[in-house]
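Lab notebook, page 48
Experiment: co-folding of the full assembly
Goal: obtain a model of how the components sit together before planning crosslinking
Operator: M.T.
Materials (sequences as entered):
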Amino acid sequence: MWGNKKGMLLFFIMVISLLSACAEKEKQADGSELIHKNQFVFAASGEFKPFSYMKDDLTMSGFDIEVGEAIAKELGLKPVQKRIKFKGIVEGIKTGRADAAVASHTINPQRSKHVSFSSPYYYSGPQIFTRPDSNIKSVKDLTGKEVAVAKGSTYSDTASKYTDKIKTYDSDITALKALSSGRHDAVITDFVTGKSAAKEGFEIKGQQLINRSEQAVVLPQDNPKLLKRINEALEHLHKNGTLSRISIKYFGEDITKKPE
Amino acid sequence: MPSFLHFFQILTETKGVFIKAMLLTLELTAVSILIGIAIGLFFALLKISKVKILESISDTYVYLVRGTPLIVQIFILYFGISGIFLLPDFWAASLALALHNGAYIAEIFRGTIKSVDKGQMEAGRSLGMSKALTLRRIILPQAFRRALPPLGNQFIIGLKDSSLAAFISMNELFNVATTLGSNNFDEMTYLLIVAVYYLLLVALLTFVVNRVENNLAVSDR
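Observation: model returned without errors.
Model output:
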């Protein structure tokens, strides 16, 4: 009996310490905090081609990753990738599993309550994707239709304005794959993502572009000095053409300039 | 660590949507268990048929299903065969679960059928009953009763395995919890809530299996 109680107590202590675990960070000379002194640990999902995807050696590559590496270089730090499922990234930043996320997060008020955003590093927007033979052309046609989106993306909010039949997947690519194989009526995702999936042979067609959005680096709210350093780095990368160069490499167009 | 007050507040606020998700989880589990029992019995009988080819069909099935992860099987039914024939979401998930459970249930039945004393078959035969009739009237009822404890175990595993249907966008308990959790940036609270619902379902399942077990134990008295 006594042994049993002791075991229970130990178990509860373990559970509680696991739940409340929050990584201790190292303070830098300028007041910014990093997980490791010489490293810039940045998170991405690796499931959002061509922004972030896994290469054969299981490291991530893509537009977001190269931007993250360019930022690290500007900061004079060693870039370290951290792969987290998209829906868990904001939580991961809050709990200190990465210094920042360069993962195509759209700036929106709900997220701003939990994390800080840098200045935007690219401009995009959600678009409706359907199978080529679909009658859905614009948001008005979505009423009562089944729309698939990625968990934790802002697209489910967008979709919920027009329909209440929403299906959620762990990644945008899986949602598009399901659409392409004859499931659901539409997918709402970033227009660049949809376009490159169509290029890879998915049977989908882009319809109305719903609105414009700004994508930014995500940081914890208690690290304003690091935010300032990253904003300075981004400004420099905008000016010296590094961001435009990476964008043209992946998309053939420059999506890092603010549209008129 | 979310506070208890917050936890109970969210628990009551989200009752409606979670109960709906719980019903879907129950449907998935019930359908997959029922089909799984049929599949399991079928392959167990093939295995004890003493016909070489039937035995190896059964062996291959059990090997393929036990040898691959359930999530792989779900994706194969969901995406893999969609080029030939499009299975509705619900059936992709529940058939994958049924095929999966079926392999384990086949092994449970095979074991318990073999555990029935040889003398039972001999007695049936000497009374002039055919082999099939002896199997149906004498061997299987005893085997089924012995199979109940491991079956109950398998049902509980099947219930919790149904959470993998989340990955093909079924709005069952786990998917609803992770979706709401990420929408509200409050993952841990929703995971704890979903744990409560699974505990409730497992309690219900355990109760039902125990009742059946007690009813069938009447002949022991």
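Interpretation: The CA atoms of residues 7 and 20 of chain A lie 20 Å apart.
Next step: discuss with group before ordering constructs.
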